[in-house]
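TASK: fixed-backbone design
INPUT:
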């Protein structure tokens, strides 16, 4: 083959790669609500039927009663139904969960022993409201309820007292609450909680440590709170298991994918996999240094120095310990096995020079959680790593530790994306291929000639198929007219 032919083929391959990975997403639909961060609060929740639930709390007019509004939108962001909730002004939204039929909203009140559960019919917007008094069920009056999930008309509520984790089972048909004695542990024990509708099991992964070695305990319950299985997973090597996710679906084929450490359980050294109910299978460990793309977020020189240092440790038969905090996402099934997304982060602090009642002038102030990069790992059905890739995160800071990066699949491509104020940053990957790592697109206003001058509390969620939903507060200035303050919903589609 001639040099000219080779050149043409290479040029064609480059062109095809550019076309495949440079296509910007489109934003065909948008909804705006007149709002600012100081007078309203919104929650956006994708539903299982590919619609969208939006909760709004408006407290802009102090002379009138505060309003609580809920709405459902279709895939083109047309409103399907909407209604107002006549609840008390002191109610504080704590958690939202939805199954196929209902949307559940948990409110706390100024009374520490009281909580309110609102259940909205997803099809016709009919709702019911029940107030629960913990004292009626011989429960501690200062119990702090944080979150919940529903499994076949039974809610599992995660609660805490001063020192312990306590799990409650609420029968939504009889309104009876009972504690789950098998789930009473240290306050920081809960690593993962899943409601697996395929197997009708509530699954809890608990992290346990004796101060030197950490292990994981998996407890699975039926929908009414009966314990069905216990599995303890502990490394036979000098490794501590930190946390784990469980694959959804078939009980007999459950896979655990989690993080492990060397001594210090605050930091992850790598990932592990294990077949939950196969006593013959060993734990498989994947040190982050063995991943192809884990350190791609580093500059080339820093990455090379790290590998040289690791090689020196290996030559001396010593462990080269890494110091990564890792947030695991839920496991996703796809055609060839399982997909795990995880984000590396660290708590960020700044110094304050403000004097305060004679205290030192330089005090550490917590700014939030800084995310450095996201990894995507594919495993086969036995837990063996197939490929890995990563996404470098820029300007990714969150007040709370949440899933910052969102993921969708379209064909053989995977899109990882997150909100960055006025923009959406994203990366399109095909397995472990190396692609552009810093693509971004502006969040569009209603009209092309309108300018977004400010953006606050923005976010991005995976919605359905190849679609994200972007949301947040904006100040939008049209040409020749007054600016408007809005909360927006933008449909973002990757072809």
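OUTPUT:
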């Amino acid at each position: 083959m001639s040099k000219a032919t080779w050149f043409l083929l290479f040029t064609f391959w480059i062109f095809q790669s550019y076309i495949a990975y440079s296509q910007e997403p489109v934003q065909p639909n948008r909804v705006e609500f007149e709002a600012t961060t100081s007078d309203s609060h919104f929650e956006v929740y994708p539903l299982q039927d590919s619609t969208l639930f939006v909760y709004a709390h408006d407290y802009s007019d102090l002379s009138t009663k505060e309003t609580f509004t809920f709405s459902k939108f279709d895939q083109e962001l047309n409103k399907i139904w909407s209604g107002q909730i006549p609840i008390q002004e002191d109610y504080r939204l704590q958690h939202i969960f939805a199954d196929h039929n209902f949307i559940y909203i948990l409110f706390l009140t100024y009374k520490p022993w009281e909580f309110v559960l609102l259940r909205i019919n997803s099809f016709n917007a009919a709702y019911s409201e029940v107030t629960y008094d913990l004292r009626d069920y011989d429960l501690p009056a200062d119990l702090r309820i944080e979150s919940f999930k529903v499994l076949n008309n039974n809610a599992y509520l995660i609660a805490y007292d001063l020192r312990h984790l306590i799990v409650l089972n609420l029968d939504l048909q009889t309104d009876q609450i009972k504690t789950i004695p098998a789930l009473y542990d240290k306050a920081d024990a809960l690593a993962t909680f899943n409601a697996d509708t395929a197997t009708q099991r509530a699954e809890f992964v608990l992290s346990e440590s004796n101060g030197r070695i950490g292990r994981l305990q998996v407890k699975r319950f039926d929908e009414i709170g009966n314990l069905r299985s216990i599995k303890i997973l502990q490394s036979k090597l000098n490794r501590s298991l930190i946390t784990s996710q469980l694959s959804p679906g078939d009980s007999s084929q459950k896979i655990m994918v989690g993080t492990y450490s060397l001594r210090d359980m605050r930091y992850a050294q790598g990932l592990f996999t294990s077949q939950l109910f196969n006593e013959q299978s060993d734990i498989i460990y994947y040190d982050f240094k063995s991943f192809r793309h884990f350190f791609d977020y580093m500059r080339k020189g820093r990455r090379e120095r790290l590998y040289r240092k690791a090689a020196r440790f290996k030559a001396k038969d010593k462990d080269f310990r890494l110091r990564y905090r890792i947030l695991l996402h839920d496991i996703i099934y796809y055609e060839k096995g399982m997909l795990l997304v995880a984000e590396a982060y660290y708590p960020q602090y700044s110094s304050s020079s403000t004097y305060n009642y004679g205290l030192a002038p330089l005090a550490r102030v917590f700014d939030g959680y800084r995310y450095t990069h996201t990894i995507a790992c594919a495993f086969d059905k036995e837990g063996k790593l197939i490929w890995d890739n990563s996404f470098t995160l820029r300007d990714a800071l969150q007040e709370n530790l949440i899933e910052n990066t969102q993921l969708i699949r379209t064909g053989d491509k995977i899109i990882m994306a997150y909100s960055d104020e006025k923009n959406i940053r994203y990366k399109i990957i095909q397995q472990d291929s190396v692609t552009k790592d810093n693509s971004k697109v502006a969040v569009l206003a209603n009209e092309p000639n309108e300018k977004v001058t400010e953006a606050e509390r923005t976010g991005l969620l995976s919605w359905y198929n190849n679609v994200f939903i972007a949301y947040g507060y904006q100040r939008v200035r049209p040409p020749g007219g007054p600016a408007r303050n809005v909360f927006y919903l933008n449909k973002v589609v990757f072809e």
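COMMENT: The CA atoms of residues 243 and 258 lie 5 Å apart.
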